[in-house]
Write a structure and sequence with these properties.
single chain, 188 residues, alpha+beta, two-stranded antiparallel ribbon, 6 strands, 39% helix
């Protein structure tokens, strides 16, 4: 991306389930720190608790295959997956987002300062996650899609409770076994 103060690079992490941007970072360089900061934001936002194993897919850029980046994935129990050379389809979700990002925000714009550019990106990510309709999600925004999932999980939990209320940790079901409630924000 361009501004009068020079080039700015953008790294992001997108949730394949909800299409939500869960981590992002801007920098004046393409070093590992750029993508590592985006990954750390995503890990901090999502945290542990998924009921399936988390897989991180990226291209074969040196930033994504660096020791620091792969170690961070390993430290958080995230499986690393890298695309094959020359295959644009295995990273189609990320490529689709970049196309939308360039069309809807960047186009032929040049910002005066990095701060103005960063503010524009913050506003775009907020709009993309909370207001932009996604055809693949049934024409709703990612945040609404995730909320629908949480609502369905709550209904399913209440259906399995004899009282019709969701069980709490330590509650006993009708057969005398202790029930533990494991919460997950979404399937990863």
């Amino acid at each position: 991306m361009r501004c009068w103060q020079g080039l700015v690079y953008f790294a992001f992490v997108i949730d394949a389930y909800s299409r939500m941007i869960v981590g992002w970072q801007l920098a004046t360089h393409m070093r590992t720190d750029l993508v590592l900061d985006a990954l750390k934001m995503a890990l901090g936002l999502r945290g542990p608790g998924a009921d399936v194993e988390l897989v991180h897919h990226s291209d074969r850029g040196s930033q994504y295959t660096s020791i620091d980046y792969t170690q961070t994935l390993d430290d958080h129990g995230v499986l690393a997956s890298v695309g094959s050379v020359g295959d644009a389809y295995d990273n189609a979700l990320a490529e689709s987002f970049l196309d939308s990002f360039k069309t809807e925000l960047i186009a032929d714009r040049v910002w005066r300062t990095r701060s103005q550019l960063e503010l524009a990106v913050v506003e775009y990510v907020g709009w993309f996650n909370n207001a932009r309709l996604h055809e693949s999600l049934g024409d709703i925004p990612p945040a609404e899609h995730e909320q629908h999932y949480l609502d369905r999980q709550a209904v399913a939990a209440s259906l399995h409770s004899p009282s019709g209320l969701a069980p709490r940790d330590g509650d006993e079901d009708h057969e005398g076994a202790t029930t533990l409630t494991i919460q997950s924000t979404r399937p990863n």
